[in-house]
Amino acid sequence: MRKIFLSIICFQFVCIVSTAQKTKPGKGIAGIWQLVEFADLDSVSNTWVHRYGKNPRGYFIYSPGGILSINVSSDTPLKITEEGSKNYTINFHEFFSSHAFGYFGTYTYEPAKGQVIHHVKGGTLPFYTDTEQPRQIQLKGDTAIIGDNIRTRRVLVRVE
Questions:
Q1: Is the pLDDT of residue 20 over 70?
Q2: For the domain bounded by 26-158, which CATH number is listed?
């Protein structure tokens, strides 16, 4: 009876450890990455559209412990005073599609699948909150490409 109990305990421990290793954030992605390109292919014209400009601003932060923070803004942000912002009306979809967005949560890196999954907890995109956002990722030294590089491309350079 004691051997069976110990076997069950050992089996449970192995399952927990293997699950933790599978979902543990990878060291290859951990760091602070500066956004240098944010592009989507326009299938009609077959050209890359840079909706945040040719020199977007932003960082993708993947902590070694699994925390994620993403902030993206246009290379020409809106110039509005705090007082002026009280009377400013915006189209929310247009704002986050061409001016700025951000979200935070945790992540799972799966290098064998070439994938990172953003587990979003909050941010400026309310429809992302409490969702998983899988992304293809390619790491080449200190450069990362998020997206399939055919229809979507987010180019990041490691800064830390």
A1: no
A2: 2.40.128.280
Question: Where do the structural domains in the chain lie, given as residue ranges?
Answer: 26-158
Q: What is the mean pLDDT of the chain?
A: 87
Per-residue HEC secondary structure of the chain comes to CHHHHHHHHHHHHHHHHHHHHHHCCCCCCCEEEEEEEEEEEECCCCEEECCCCCCCEEEEEECCCCEEEEEEECCCCCCCCHHHHCCCCCCHHHHHHHCEEEEEEEEEEEHHHCEEEEEEEEECCHHHCCCEEEEEEEEECCEEEECCCCCEEEEEEECC
Please state the pTM of the whole predicted model.
0.81
pLDDT beyond 70 at 26: no
Calculate Rg over the CA atoms of the chain: 20
Tens digit of pLDDT for each residue in 117-151? 999 999 999 999 999 999 999 999 999 999 999 99
